[in-house]
Amino acid sequence: METFKTIIEPFRIKMVETISVTNLEQRKKYLTAAHNNPFLLDSDKVMIDFLTDSGTSAMSANQWAGIMQGDESYAGSSSWNKMFAAINHLTGHEFVLPVHQGRAGERILYGYLGGKGKTFISNTHFDTTRANIEFSGAEAIDIPIEEGKNPALYHPFKGNMDVVELEKLINEKGAKNVSAVILTVTNNSGGGQPVSMENARAVSAICKKYKVNFFLDCCRVAENSYFIKLREKGFENKTYEEIAQEMFALTDGSVMSAKKDALVNMGGFISLKDEAMALACKNLLIITEGFATYGGLSGRDMEAIAIGLKEVFEPDYLHYRISSTTFLGTKLKEMGVPLMWPIGGHAVYIDAKALYSHIPVDQYPGQALVCELYLAGGIRTVEIGSVMFGKYDDQGKLIPANMELVRLAIPRRVYTQSHIEYVIEVFEKLMKNRDNVKGVKITEEPLFLRHFTSKFERL
Ligand code: F0G
Description:
CATH superfamily of the largest domain: Type I PLP-dependent aspartate aminotransferase-like (Major domain)
CATH architecture of the largest domain: 3-Layer(aba) Sandwich
Radius of gyration: 22 Å
Strand content: 5-15%
Distance between the termini: 54 Å
Bound molecules: ligand F0G
Mean pLDDT: 96
Number of helices: 17
Largest sheet: 7 strands, mixed
CATH topology of the largest domain: Aspartate Aminotransferase, domain 2
CATH class of the largest domain: Alpha Beta
Number of strands: 16
């Protein structure tokens, strides 16, 4: 095979969206007006938007062409038939329900299976997954492998689930009380780290033994397949799609936020093997999302999903995608920026506690870095640390999160190599000034999900 040092973006740009280039003076003003919380910034004040990879993909010419063919019929839309066929081909699951985004699927499926006294077990539940499970009255337990909890340690499949702990927990809780085991691929909350096929097989075998449902939270399943082909023995000659199909075949169903690896701006689905479960979910779908052949989506959205689910498995696309994230992370690591290692699929996670070791956790080193990245380069990121997960004890003292991370989530097919190089240059500046950075203080905060709307003062 021909190899080159430079991996090009395997696309040309047909339509552009202007980035308004700002200067430091302007950004100081904008950030102050946004109370030092970039969630409160208008997007036209942002130069590089790494807030999320969700719903931020650039669609292809084929997807836009598909959109023009969207069949907006209430029932039996041909666009739904295409979306169904694409998902059925990928998952092998017979029953598919469209939903408007991942969490709608979670609410329906986990709401139906959950309730008081029930348990869900995952490598790591994403925050909306956990919220929907807990809202039903059930508990959500995370059991990533030990290696997955250590940011600096190398392991090829840090997203794996601890299968010894899984079997122990099922016995402890009683199999009939365990509503489902959920593998999140890749493991977003654990650093976008992949799960191996070997681990999925082991989880599947345990679930079969105890007759417990096994589902995939599969919103980044193509990225996960890339890592399996690259790092797991026996998969070198399989296609990325075959690898994903093999993983789905181990499961009883899946929930997908199509806003990630289906390369669209809105959408999702539930896929299931069991007819009775599918029927119960379908009834809930019709009450809250829409009829079973559109579930809260326009016909045009369903066309774009059907096409995106094929495009995402193209080898050149996946190679560029993961290489680009790895390039950014590796360069930052070489500069001495402490981060989650190895680099995951969709994002680079900076260890802000290690970067700004002089800032105490109750002055939120992650939020300080979020502010610095915006001020220095107009880069928008999100804190995943004590702003997001911190709680207070009875005395009002902060109980910090386990880690103080900042996520640089990279939208799909949106930014080019020079954007990435610009981000690296911004970090070079930040590294020179790291000892002078001060923490932040929360001046106003909501009861829940405080990272979205809290206001901060820079100390
Ligand atoms: N599961 C995982 C692993 C996710 O990363 C997300 C969303 C969801 C479920 C929920 O999907 O947003 O379509 O309702 N993650 C986004 C993020 C929000 O920024 O990581 P949704």
